[in-house]
Each structure stands twice: as C-alpha cells, then as structure tokens.
Write a structure and sequence with these properties.
The chain is an alpha+beta fold and about 210 residues long. It contains nine helices and four strands. The chain is about 55% helix and about 10% strand. It has a four-stranded mixed sheet, with helices on one face. A hairpin with a 2-residue loop joins strand 3 and strand 4. The longest helix has 21 residues. The chain is globular and about 45 Å long.
C-alpha cells in the first residue's frame, strides 16, 4: 500500500494533485498529514523529505517527492489507467499543459492563493493576472472542444492534466471568478467528482477544528 504525505487540505494545492490521482485510480493508500501552519512544519517535513516539501509518496522503501514526479510514477505503475493519453501526439500535448501548470502562472498563484474554504472578492484584474487566467481558460476550452465527444475531462477521460488543473478549479470558486461555456462545464464536472467533494469536506473539517 502507498503512503502519501500531504499538507493541509485547505492550503496545499500540490498535495491535492497526487491525492486526487490515487482516488481516481481507486487505489488504497495511507494518508499522513502535516499541519503547514505549525511553527515547526518545515522541520517536521524534513524528517520525511530532506527537500522540506509536501507531497511525498512512499512505495515500500522508495520515497518520491514533487507532485509531478509522483504522478509520473503512478502513471507508470498503472498504465491501464491511461493517466497519460495513449496517442503520442495527445500524450505530448498533455505533458505540455501539465508542465506549463507545474511551473507557470505565478501571478494567478500569488493573487488567488489556494484556499478552498475561503470566499474572497475577485482580486484586481491586472494585465498579468488576466493573462494567466486567459491562458488557463484557453487550455480548458481548446482541449474540451477537441475531446468533448470522448468524455467530460480535458482529454475525454481522466488524465494527469485534470489533476494538475484541479486546484485552479477551486481557486475560481474561492475568488468568485465567473466562468462561462466549456470552461464552466469543465469546472462544474471536476467539482462534482466524489474525490473532489471528499477533499473539500475534509478541508472544511480541518478549518473548523483550527478555529
């Protein structure tokens, strides 16, 4: 059985990604959690991961850090799940948008921090923020147009691309950003997933206990 070390469900967007993949695989795993608000959170994490970051996946004696590396490993462990699309062109496209999400959108991250339980006014739409939001929606709408007949996810079926954009879906809710068209349909579908509903419920429970 896998063990996944994560941070707070209300705060750790990086933890959500591999957690969601494991849930969508219906793969049993043990969850370990570190409160990122604790004064010694960094020291607690370094006991498990010298890089001082979550998430971290244990597979027996193997430890894998970084959400993308973890998800890549899971894709190799479960090839039947098609966490990357099967066709080489679609697989390259999926890897491209996942890498873009993994390393990009700095203004979106800063202006709209991950906060599932929070409800905030939409931040000022500076040119930089508008550019990041426009790019996210461009990716969603383009992929949904290409794969609408194949299913409700970005590539029709669930892939790592969906896992990596899942935290952005919640950001649009938290910051009252109104979506339309295929982007709205996609966001609604992602939020309706039982796994996403579970994560949200548990984030709310964590937040309530912390008050």
């Amino acid at each position: 059985m896998f063990t996944l070390l994560i941070g707070n469900k209300n705060l750790s967007s990086w933890s959500l990604r591999p957690w969601l993949v494991l849930k969508m695989l219906d793969e049993p795993f043990e969850e370990q959690k570190i409160d990122l608000r604790a004064a010694d959170a960094a020291e607690q994490i370094r006991v498990f991961n010298p890089a001082g970051k979550v998430p971290l996946l244990y597979d027996r004696n193997l430890r894998i850090g970084d959400s993308l590396a973890i998800c890549e490993y899971l894709a190799e462990c479960f090839p039947h799940a098609r966490l990357w699309p099967q066709g080489s062109a679609e697989r390259a496209q999926a890897r491209s948008v996942v890498a873009e999400m993994h390393s990009g959108f700095p203004t979106l991250r800063q202006a709209m921090p991950f906060d599932i339980c929070g409800r905030h006014a939409t931040p000022p739409l500076t040119a930089e923020l508008q550019r990041d939001i426009h790019r996210v929606l461009e990716i969603w709408q383009s992929l949904r147009q290409q794969h609408e007949a194949d299913g409700p996810f970005l590539f029709g079926h669930f892939t790592l691309a969906d896992a990596f954009f899942a935290p952005v879906v919640t950001r649009f809710v938290s910051y009252d950003y109104v979506l339309t068209g295929l982007a709205e349909q996609y966001a609604e579908h992602m939020l309706s997933l039982p796994a996403m509903q579970q994560w949200i419920r548990e984030a709310e429970a964590e937040t309530a206990l912390a008050r």
